[in-house]
Amino acid sequence: MKRMIAALLVSTLLAAPAFAADTMSPYALKLKDKAMKNDAAAAYNLALCFHEGGKDCPQSDAEAAKWLDKAGSLGDVGALVNLGDFYHMGLGVKQDDVQALHYYSTAAGHGSAEAEYNIGTFYANGYGMKAPNTKEAMNWLTRAANQGLFAAQMDLAHMYMQTQPPSYEDAYFWFAVAANSKDDQAPQAATMRDRIGKALSGDQVNAQQVKAKAWRATPEAEGYDQRRGALH
Length: 232
Known about the structure:
Layout: H1 26-36, H2 40-52, H3 61-73, H4 77-89, H5 97-108, H6 113-125, H7 134-146, H8 150-162, H9 168-179, H10 186-197, H11 202-214
Helix pairs in contact: 1-2, 2-3, 3-4, 4-5, 5-6, 6-7, 7-8, 8-9, 9-10, 9-11
């Protein structure tokens, strides 16, 4: 699971079975007790316990969704992102991309790069909306990329290659930034960077290399006006 606040719509969750105490380990029961006392971390960990199943909790995505909802309502941004994932994939809840987008947007209001990346992906594919919107997709991917999210940097670079006309300098820049990261797939980014470089002049390559070398990730702070999404 990844990590997803708003006035969460509990009524839209599928009915989760009530689990008897003897089906949960002492560890899980302690988590449940804390979660019921509004401990966000405990609610999130209990959701993870139910999602994974095993010796501590019986596997139940419906029950996991219920506790993600609880954690999200208490301010756990990771729970909001996860809840968006659950709605997108229909795990323990009725599949609903509009709801997924709602939770991602709320998490993005807290500055979550992962949520911004998911929103960008939704716009790129038209999930939960009438049609894809490439401009909005690139805007959201740029925000996630600027926070240092490798996947967003790679996807953004590929999108610049596909714009009409293609923007190879921008694509080169983001591949170069990704190549400079510590991600395991950085060598793949370097390969793409060098491939794109063949379509550019030496001066263009040098200019983008200087920019990429100077680039630094900039985390978003919660509360920045337009990033607040559906926060209350």
